[in-house]
Design a protein that fits this description.
Layout lengths: L3 H16 L1 H12 L4 H8 L3 H13 L3 E6 L2 E6 L2 H18 L14
Helix pairs in contact: 2-4, 2-5
């Protein structure tokens, strides 16, 4: 049975993953199709080392899984429902953000 603390922990992990643009892009990429680190590094334009650190964070958060395939490892979402959650979140944010700005301390939009 899930408790409020468990549910909040899950949301916090999801939020931490999405807080970094590279991790968010990784999640969107593996939402579309499972991928290998070399493909993700090239797609995102980051070094393999940097990508590896982000993949480790996403694994630790329980959002992606590493699937060994011989000498290679494929990454995919840990659960198909995460893909639906990403789609729903993206749609909601786009709908709400259409006419909304969120000013930062300097009075400029942060979004």
């Amino acid at each position: 049975m899930l408790t409020l603390a468990t549910e909040l922990d899950a949301l916090t992990r999801f939020g931490r993953a999405l807080a970094d643009p590279i991790r968010a892009r990784i999640l969107v990429a593996v939402r579309e199709a499972p991928a290998y680190p070399s493909e993700l590094a090239e797609l995102l334009g980051v070094s393999r080392t940097r990508l590896s650190n982000h993949l480790a964070c996403l694994r630790d958060c329980g959002l992606v899984v590493a699937v060994p395939e011989g000498r290679r490892t494929r990454y995919e979402l840990a659960d198909a429902r995460l893909g639906h959650a990403l789609d729903d979140l993206r749609s909601a944010v786009v709908a709400v953000a259409a006419g909304v700005t969120c000013p930062d301390a300097a009075g400029k939009g942060c979004c």
